[in-house]
Design brief:
The protein is an all-alpha fold and about 130 residues long. It has one domain: Serine Threonine Protein Phosphatase 5, Tetratricopeptide repeat, CATH 1.25.40. About 60% of the residues lie in helices and about 5% in strands. It contains seven helices and two strands, in the order E-E-H-H-H-H-H-H-H. The chain has a two-stranded antiparallel sheet with strand order 1-2. Helix 1 packs antiparallel against helix 2.
Length: about 130
Amino acid sequence: MARDQQGLALAGAPESAGAFNRAMTDYYGLTGDPVGVLKSALARDPGFALGGVAIAALYMIGGFRGDHPEVMSALRASEAAIGRASQREQNHLAAAKAWRGARSRRRFLLGSRSWPIIPPMRSLYGWCRTPISS
């Protein structure tokens, strides 16, 4: 089992872990094409369970509905590989599936603890609502 840049186990090849690291760096840095990087890695390594979860999450963060074909395809790919994944990765898949089924993504994000793949949305929401004082 490969490891990501934080040293956490990641199902799939070491190259997939590298792709995951690049995608997360791109996402947090607002650069590159994190979904493209993850899709390429998933195409090369069907055992890359967290890749599909991250793709689905990034699409939903971007405003895609949970029933969008790209989200559904990414989650199906993760489900096919989840048997070799760690408990942490299984939890990420469960969270993404719950998010997909949530009636309101905003309510789901704001009412939940921050999900390690994405920034803490609760703190971002609070920051956006805080008036700027002179």
